[in-house]
Design brief:
By secondary structure, the protein is mainly beta. Strands 1-2-3-4-5-6-7-8 form an eight-stranded antiparallel β-barrel. Strand 2 and strand 3 form a beta hairpin. The protein is about 15% helix and about 40% strand.
């Protein structure tokens, strides 16, 4: 049993070292969120990583895993193109709410900024919350190539999760 656990731990460590990683900060038009995504591609369209909460003042991070996807422009999300769809344990990590799901669609390139620091192009990520069979809300924004608060970029917003709110179901 100990050999199996050690072998699995070694394999996970080895794969995490070999997997190329990408790190993106989350932003709105006015502010930076304190959490940021660290994604690694494992081949076959599979991704895994961390929703890093260290800048939010936490000593633990959320786990993310997902797959490559392409969202077409006509889907109405406001974020489209090639990217990654992943499940995120953010609600469970922050609040212990295991019945709430945070799912994110993110591009794998950050937005450029103009000379005034404004983001160019459309949003690069969107998150959706669901709980107990209900849609809970969305949040969306830009990706920047950095980790808050490096290079003078200071987070002014908490984590990216949308506040859970019940919406009326229509049939």
């Amino acid at each position: 049993m100990k050999k199996t656990v050690l072998a699995i731990a070694t394999l996970i460590l080895f794969c995490s070292i070999l997997a190329p990683g990408q790190t993106f900060g989350f932003a709105s038009a006015e502010s930076i969120y304190c959490n940021y995504e660290q994604l690694s591609y494992y081949g076959g369209g599979l991704w895994a990583g961390t929703d890093n909460l260290s800048v939010c003042g936490l000593d633990r991070n959320a786990t993310i895993s997902g797959f490559s996807a392409r969202v077409t422009k006509n889907k109405g999300l406001g974020v489209y193109g090639p990217g990654v769809i992943y499940g995120d344990t953010l609600y469970a990590t922050l609040y212990g709410w295991t019945a709430v799901q945070w799912t994110v669609y993110t591009k794998t390139q950050c937005n450029k900024q103009n000379k005034h620091g404004q983001y160019v192009g459309g949003y690069s990520w969107i998150g959706v919350a669901g709980f107990s069979g209900f849609f809970g809300g969305t949040n969306a924004g830009y990706l920047f190539c950095g980790i808050p608060p490096r290079n003078g970029v200071v987070p002014t917003l908490g984590p990216t999760i949308a506040p859970a709110r019940r919406v009326t179901e229509t049939r």
